[in-house]
Amino acid sequence: MTQPRDGDHRQTEADLVPHEMFQMLFDAAEDIAIARRVAERTRSDSGNRTSLAAVAADLGVDLDSL
Predict the structure, then answer these.
(1) Potential cystine with 13: which of 7, 34, 37, 44 (Cβ 3.0-4.6 Å)?
(2) pLDDT at position 2, please?
(3) Cα 32–Cα 37–Cα 41 angle in degrees, nearest 5
């Protein structure tokens, strides 16, 4: 990893990383974002579930004919 130059107050403005490392970091960030959404949905979940077969029956759709 290299640091091209320092900006104001001697803080790094950018870092150069290999693509493989960037991809690994991106995947980890995506996993964290997904986990947050799952946790949010779990907290607000009513617990009620409906099967595809039940919805199809309510709508008069024969799943076997599709």
Answers:
(1) 7
(2) 59
(3) 145
Domain count, the chain: 1
Using one digit for the tens of pLDDT, what is the confidence trace for 40-57? Answer: 999 998 888 899 999 999
Give CA–CA dist 37/31, Å, rounded: 10
The residues that bridge with 2 in the sheet, in sequence order, are 16
Rounded Cα gap, residues 7 and 26, in angstroms: 25
CA–CA separation, 8 and 13 (whole Å): 9
Pairwise CA distance, residues 16 & 25, whole Å: 13
The answer as to whether 60 is a domain residue is no
- First-to-last CA distance in the chain? 54
Look up the domain containing 29 and give its range. 1-43
Both structure tokens of 13: 């403005």
